[in-house]
Structures are given as C-alpha cells and as structure tokens.
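Figure 6 in text form: structure in, sequence out.
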C-alpha cells in the first residue's frame, strides 16, 4: 500500500510544481502561437517543410523522454542544442527566407510595365518555333528576385527580346545554345547560363538535365522557366518548384500573360500566392486543378 501511495503521489507533486502563466504569459503564448502558425503556413509545401517537421518531432520526443526518465544531462544538452536550431533553420530555409525578404523589400512596386506584359508574344513565338524543330531550350523570366549570380555563369547580353533572337540563341552549334537564357525586366540579360539542378528525388526518369535545371532555379527564385525538350519537342513550364508538361500555344500564352501581368511585391500579393499554392501542386501559372 505504501508503495502504491508513493507511486501515485509523484505525478501529483509534479503537477503541483507547474507554474501557470499569468496575463502577461498568456499574451506571450498567444503572440508566439500566431508567429508559429504563420511560419508553418508560409513554409508548408517547401523543400524544408519535411525537415522542419522531422526535427520538431524528434526534439519533442527526446525532450519528453529525458524529462520523465530523469536523464538530466541529456535533457540539459538538448536544451542547449535548441539555441543552435535557429542557425540550422536559417541554412535549411535559406531559399524561402531569401524569397520572402525580396518580396518584402519590394512591396512598393505595384506597377507592371507595358513592355514587360508585351514579352508574352515573342517568348511564346520563339518557344513554339523551337518546339516545332525539336530544338532544346531553357528560358527563365525573372519576377521579383534578381538572378545576378546565375547570370554571371553565362554571357551578358542586355538585348531586346525577340522571337528571332531567342530562336537563334538555341540553334544547335551556336556558342550559347547549351545553357539557359535569363530575361530580366524586358531585356535578355544573359545567355548560356548554368542553372542549379534540383535535388528532388521524386521526379520521373524521363526528365533530363534541362527539366531538372528548370525546377532547381524555381526552387531558389520566383522565376518562371520554360523548357523545350530536345528529344520530343514537348513544352514544359516550371514555377515555384513544380513542373507542368504538355503546353500548347494557347496555354503557353495564357501562362505567360498571367505571370507577366501580375503585380509584383507586397504582403497582400505574397499571401494570395501562398494561399493558391497551399496544395503544393497548382498555382495561378498553371491554371488547372490537381485533378486534371
């Protein structure tokens, strides 16, 4: 009986030792909960979301186990490691953080120039011409985030965008045909650029280096990348880390018009785009629903 009473008294003593927060503590908890909610909502569907979830589950499990089993030294070490978790999160979510800061820094830019909207036709004409000839192509169009580092891997051009020029760049045998073209503002900024390859392991085996480079660039920036397959002539569009294949002329023009005609920057636009991307598979660029 004494042993049974001792066993039941331990949890009761532990419960009585808990210090319940007052009004100030409840306000702090509410603020932290709101911040945590928006962080989870923002990072959901990104590459680091699974890593963040795994870290949270493992650390929570270890903290609880070491607390209730009186492994005080291990519990103390875990608490100290939590301090360095912030640095790890910065490294893991570096592309997403850079994208968010770039959007916040440009929230005053709410205008879309006519020259930028006019890019849809020459880009679409060039892509359709290249697809008909089964000439491989990789064309990236900047949105808010600059791609200066990627441009430096190629040859600077600063040329007017035209269907003829884009088609000639990717013509087999030309010096710049083997890389990617980056369109910044309403100009061809650089050609022959090397795009970063995606590290995603859930891609189909028929996707080549061009498609992986297109996805990789959109994972790190908010660009839209158009890919023309050299083997099949199929037109694909990558945006926000996702790839949609099988674009024809009308669908490609609609996607380009939608991308180029959207206002840049601002918290409202960022929240709207994030809401439409929550399912991780569709957004305003692709227009179709996931079931299609």
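Output sequence:
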């Amino acid at each position: 009986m004494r042993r049974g009473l001792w066993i039941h008294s331990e949890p009761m003593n532990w419960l009585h030792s808990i210090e319940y927060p007052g009004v100030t503590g409840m306000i702090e908890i509410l603020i932290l909960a709101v911040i945590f909610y928006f962080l989870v909502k923002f990072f959901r569907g990104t590459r680091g979301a699974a890593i963040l979830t795994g870290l949270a589950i493992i650390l929570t499990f270890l903290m609880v186990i070491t607390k209730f089993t009186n492994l005080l030294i291990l519990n103390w070490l875990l608490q100290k490691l939590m301090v360095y978790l912030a640095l790890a999160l910065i490294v893991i979510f570096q592309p997403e953080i850079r994208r968010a800061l770039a959007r916040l820094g440009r929230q005053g830019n709410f205008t879309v120039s006519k020259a930028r909207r006019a890019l849809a036709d020459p880009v679409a004409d060039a892509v359709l011409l290249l697809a008909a000839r089964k000439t491989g192509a990789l064309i990236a169009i900047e949105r808010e985030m600059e791609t200066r580092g990627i441009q430096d891997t190629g040859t600077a051009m600063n040329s007017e965008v035209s269907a003829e020029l884009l088609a000639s760049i990717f013509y087999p045998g030309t010096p710049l045909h083997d890389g990617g073209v980056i369109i910044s503002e309403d100009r061809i900024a650089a050609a022959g650029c090397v795009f970063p390859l995606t590290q995603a392991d859930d891609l189909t085996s028929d996707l080549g280096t061009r498609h992986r480079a297109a996805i990789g660039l959109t994972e790190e920036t908010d660009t839209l990348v158009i890919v023309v397959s050299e083997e099949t002539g199929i037109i694909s569009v990558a945006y926000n880390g996702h790839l949609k294949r099988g674009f024809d002329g009308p669908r490609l023009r609609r996607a380009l018009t939608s991308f180029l005609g959207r206002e840049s920057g601002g918290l409202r636009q960022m929240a709207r785009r994030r809401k439409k991307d929550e399912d991780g598979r569709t957004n305003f660029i692709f227009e179709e629903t996931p079931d299609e």
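Caption detail: Residues 281 and 290 are 6 Å apart (CA to CA).
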